[in-house]
## 1
Amino acid sequence: MDLGLRGKVVVITGASRGIGRATAEVFAAEGAHLMLSARSGDQLEDVAKHCGQNAYTFAADLRNPDVPDHLIATAIKYFGGIDVLVNNAGATKRGNILELDEYDWRDGFSLKFFAAMRCSRASWPHLKRSKGTIINVVGVGGRTPSADFAVGGSVNAALLNLTKSLADLGRNDSIRVNAVNPGSIATERLQRRIKSLAVEQHMTEEIALQAMAKQLAVNRFGEPAEVGRAIAFLASTAAAYCHGSIIDVDGGQTRTL
Ligand SMILES: NC(=O)c1ccc[n+]([C@@H]2O[C@H](COP(=O)([O-])OP(=O)(O)OC[C@H]3O[C@@H](n4cnc5c(N)ncnc54)[C@H](OP(=O)(O)O)[C@@H]3O)[C@@H](O)[C@H]2O)c1
């Protein structure tokens, strides 16, 4: 199916690895023009190289309140407009409320929630002009809280709420806003969790992987491109009537409504 994304300008945060990188590659294969952001310039350049000549990079720390404005202004400078914003950058420390300190809470919100809010705000007038779309990459922890994902779950719940709020505003401004909730996706982050579980429980990484899949009751972990394809679908005209939708891409991990 042609998703109609050829020539569309797509800004992706957290594009240097994992889900963001896979998403950039999916959009590049559809012929989109890309503005890729993360902190690590070298990794971003590598992604851009794989995405072809219409990919530019912007390396900066999105926790800095000024950076989202600069990112969007740079995209406008290169491309003259924006059609799609993918708010994907996120990294929250795992742990329960007794294990996490003030910094962990502030850090979790300052990247995943505030950067998404600021990028959305900065790109809104441009998306209004292009009748564009925002996709927030959130996470199943926003709907299914757990003790050991206190910051991540809270940030995700806040971002799901913001998704609905933006979608409400977007009805007037012709901007579609949706979210995807990845489950456990096989990225470096998951690899790190497996490693620390293996150390904690004195087991091999292979056994730790199986134990985690069993605990989550999933048959396998997801591939980053499986999330990327859901994002590209939501950005496309095929999803024109999806607005304020929250799509779980989690192999059935979420069992609640
Ligand atoms: N993987 C999963 O199982 C899973 C599950 C649920 C939700 N999610 C969500 O999906 C998104 C992507 O996850 P992932 O697993 O692909 O993560 P990842 O592999 O850890 O990648 C995170 C991306 O964010 C960038 N980033 C981190 N800190 C940043 C900062 N301060 N400023 C700018 N960019 C920053 C990283 O690049 P630099 O380090 O170079 O800055 C990287 O490109 C996140 O929002 C995550 O919460 C993932």
## 2
Amino acid sequence: MTRPIHIISSLTGKKEQLVPIHPGEVRMYACGVTVYDLCHLGHAMQAVFFDVMRRYLEYAGYKVTYVRNYTDVDDKIINRAAETKISPRKLAQDMVVAADEDLLNVGVAPASHEPRVSQMIPEIIAMVQTLIDKKAAYVTPAGDVYYRVRAKADYGKLSKRNPDEMRSGTREVFQGEKEDSLDFALWKRDSVPEATWPSPWGQGRPGWHIECSAMSKKFLGVSFDIHGGGRDLIFPHHENEIAQSESANDAPFATIWVHTGLLTIDKQKMSKSLGNHLLIRDVLKIWPAEVLRLGFLEHHYSSAIDFSKQVFFNCHKRLLYYYETLEALDEIASKAPASEKETLLDGFTPESIVENFHRAMSDDFHTATAIADINRVFKKSRDLLVQKKSDAKAWTAKTIARSLREVGKVLTLFQEDPRTMLGTLKTTLLPELNITKEEIEQAMTERQTARKEKNFARSDEIRATLAKRGIELRDTPQGTVWTVLYQE
Ligand SMILES: [Zn+2]
């Protein structure tokens, strides 16, 4: 059984029901990384959103074939390789390995297929040849091949651009051998070693857009269900993918288009010159990956998302709250009786958490709503924790913890062992609070002594001083423990 899913498609601007071309199976393509440098936070964000969409589709009962490509042939790679004096192939290979590692560390599962341009040259050449044969492309005397935009009557349908207006908007400057200023390269004559290949039009390399048309066709077929990418790819990249594929295949390309929003850091576009260019591997040296994922997923995928130190800090503290609650729920659940016939407390039902999750996610993958719902479950769980001991309480705790972990699996949240995760979360926050574990432990010992001596004024004073520095002491039956203060 598969659940009905609705997605707002960038192509129509409307909410569409996902009706897979192959019943029960969703075929999905997302444009991946151009491997000339290490991956930054923007790459992580896009990869996390598409990973979660894929996980949700699977959770909703669909078989999913997901393709995410690596662009390993590109001007940027050739230029960077020349600067650093290594071969383009070696640079691209190293960056693919690094990207795989970074994305895995962020918690993104590998796609079903992760093709690279350099492995797709025969398929690309075949598609370019088909376009030439169909008069949708032409070869220039210099050996470049261009797509003929005038051959496609509905060119501009994704980006909602009118080709005539685009032509009149740009003064017809020298266009080389192009027939039309809008025509774009399918094949570029070039001879850079290790980055070019022989073709019927001479030594050269593919233009940027054709790779995605060739790859999606190879792994997903000429028509498939969902195509995604960053919003900045709508024009020209995605518009041109549609044009090439539909001209070559005489079939509609992707049914639904989804675009992720753009990421800013402190409200500014990420850039090396501003010093806010955050690499995944640098961020993960400070913050656990789950902090990042929560920071992305508490927004809808299409939103513009801004990150700042405060966002990291807030997400971190919220995870601390989630995992402390989970640990407490587990503790109560461990005493649950074997019978599952107990009525649950506080209006919970075994299905309520999961059903709410489906409602949010089947409506355009609304992770923001899903997380807001989950927040309410945690809040109600805190109320449950203080209730008096009963079998019903234990069963309710068990059901909540199990359901949170079930939906959390789709969101890639709450999958860690609470005790281990809490250790990590608490320790990583300390430098932010400008306090060390040793200082806290020393204060705790001092307080212990004061209490033994019945000097409660001193004991309270120590507790208050720590609280001012963001550390809370809790006296439990197992002794005093410390945690980082958070606002609920
Ligand atoms: Zn693409």
